[in-house]
Every structure is written in C-alpha cells, then in structure tokens.
C-alpha cells in the first residue's frame, strides 16, 4: 500500500488483513522475526544493527523472501511500508518476489494537514481525539480525567508538510514506477489501483475489496 502520511493506510491495512486472513508484514517485523529465529540472515542483520550500520536493500529483500516462505504467508500477505523507494522496488522484481497488487490511497495535502493537524492526545493513556472529527466533550481536555490534551510534534502543520515533502521525494515516485509496469501488461508485475482516501470509510473499503477480488 502506498500513500502519504495520514492517508489512512493503517486503517485500510487492518481491514485487508482481517478480511483475507493474511499477515501484515513490515520491515521491522521481518528484522525481528529473522533475529529471533537466529537464521543466518538474522545474525547478519543483528551484527549490522548492533554496529550502527544500515541494512542494505539486498539484505532486506533476502529477508522478505525468507519471511514470505513461512506457513502463515501461504494464502498471501500485505507489505507495510516496503518497498519505500524505486531501488527497493527494482530489487524486489529482480529477486523474483511477486507482488500481485499495489494500491495507492490518494489524499491531497490539505486534507492530510487537517487530519493530522487536528489530532489531540491524552499523553498518559494514549487516548486520541480530533478537533473536528472526534472532539472531546470539553475543548482541550481528556473526557475521562479532565487532564489537558497535547498535540504531538509529528502532528504540527510544519512537521506534517515536511513529512509530505519527504513522501513526494522518496515514495511517491513508486506510483509512476508501478503504473508504468502495469501499463506494459507484464505477468510478473502487480496490478496498480489508486483509491480516493478522502471519502466515506465503507466506500473506500468497498473500492479496495473490488480491486483485490478482481
């Protein structure tokens, strides 16, 4: 799944894994699984991480292949946050890791800023509110404790717009990358679909389900 921060990828990912009964796999999951299992790759990754180095795309792709060979992936899997860049996507193709579908959750920048910029959090409990969509009973205060709500640094407008800038630079090019392959009709590349993420939740889930059940 592709899409900017605040597009609702997490919500839709949970829906997909529940509906199809498949695991959601993130880069962090893969690293932890390999290290915990004590595989050769896991030990290599552990050494790199312990020394403060960066895990290469090649090693990550090897980890992907190792992870999706596990029994819980026999009926499919959902990648979460990977690949993030075109080199990672190319490495996946070259390694023969088949992705059937790529879904972009499309939301414009102003909507993302409204969604994330309006979030407020009760720091001790983690309870979430939104000044527009889910406001507390008393403005600025937690419903249960009456304590003041905070706005996380990541949700401030300047931070959100910077995150959107990083997304456009690093990850958005994957949309054009996968669109290009999809237009060629090659059997080894995924079907690409863009879904408007600014609508009703049930409508968005319906459109995603239509794509995945084709």
Task: Describe this structure as you would to a colleague.
This protein is mainly alpha-helical and 214 residues long. The protein has a single domain (9-22, 75-212), classed as Rossmann fold. The chain has nine helices and six strands. The strands form three sheets. The chain has a two-stranded parallel ribbon with strand order 1-2. Strands 3-6 form a two-stranded parallel ribbon. α2 (27-37) crosses α3, α2 (27-37) packs across α4 (57-67) and α6 (109-117) packs across α7 (157-170). It is globular, with a radius of gyration of 19 Å. The mean pLDDT is 88.
Could you state the CATH homologous superfamily? P-loop containing nucleotide triphosphate hydrolases
* Average pLDDT figure: 88
From N to C, what is the helix and strand string?
A: HEHHHEHEHEEHHEH
Count of helical segments? 9
Number of strands: 6
> What is the helical fraction, as a range of percent?
40-55%
**Poorly predicted regions:** none
Task: Give a quick set of tags describing it.
about 210 residues; two-stranded parallel sheet; globular; 6 strands; mainly alpha; about 45% helix
